[in-house]
């Protein structure tokens, strides 16, 4: 085991990203695979297409561009900063910071979401990534970040609580926690 770090999406992680995507799909969690499919915004990637380096570079450019207010996204979606969690130069997951909350995000999505590939779980990657992304949120002027998880996701609940999450309530099957971004 190496040291976790957050990095900007980068074409150099193509192979381990795709391996992780396959793991997420095989474990029944395709929504965590990171393959963007937003036809309503004209942004569609496929697992097969991402085997091509140019197409993978296009995905990376899209993810980096999503930080901008004017990037293409479905109506009601907000800009987001996506970082990749890497260990020993291998992609192990992603964490994203939504720059502001909409009514839907206030109910179930929150400011920060994360996903760690199944083979890398249980080693602290999510705890590290949430802590590091809270610093990014603080740098964006977000004093308290909303982080949510499914009511039956014990590991995610512990991750949020380890990072100082204070439970507020449960809505639509989501536990809702507020986490200070600065001490």
Automatic annotation (TrEMBL):
What are the UniProt keywords, alphabetically?
A: Transferase
What the entry lists under Pfam families is as follows: Acetyltransf_3
**Protein origin, superkingdom:** Bacteria
- The residue ranges of the N-acetyltransferase domain are 33-183
N-terminal signal peptide: none
InterPro entries, from UniProt? Acyl_CoA_acyltransferase, GNAT_dom
Q: Which GO terms describe its molecular function?
A: acyltransferase activity, transferring groups other than amino-acyl groups
Q: What is this protein called?
A: GNAT family N-acetyltransferase
| Species this chain originates from | Nocardioides iriomotensis
């Amino acid at each position: 085991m190496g040291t976790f770090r957050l990095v900007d999406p980068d074409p150099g992680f193509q192979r381990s990203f795709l391996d992780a995507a396959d793991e997420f799909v095989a474990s029944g969690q395709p929504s965590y695979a990171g393959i963007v499919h937003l036809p309503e915004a004209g942004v569609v990637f496929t697992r097969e297409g991402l085997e091509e380096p140019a197409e993978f570079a296009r995905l990376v450019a899209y993810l980096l561009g999503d930080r901008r207010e004017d990037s293409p996204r479905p109506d009601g979606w907000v800009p987001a900063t996506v970082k990749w969690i890497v260990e020993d130069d291998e992609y192990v997951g992603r964490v994203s910071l939504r720059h502001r909350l909409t009514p839907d995000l206030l109910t179930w999505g929150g400011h920060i979401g994360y996903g760690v590939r199944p083979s890398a779980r249980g080693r602290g990657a999510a705890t590290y990534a949430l802590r590091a992304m809270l610093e990014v949120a603080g740098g964006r002027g977000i004093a308290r970040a909303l982080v949510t998880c499914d009511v039956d996701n014990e590991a995610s609940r512990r991750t949020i609580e380890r990072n100082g999450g204070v439970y507020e309530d449960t809505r639509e099957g989501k536990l809702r926690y507020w986490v200070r971004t600065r001490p």
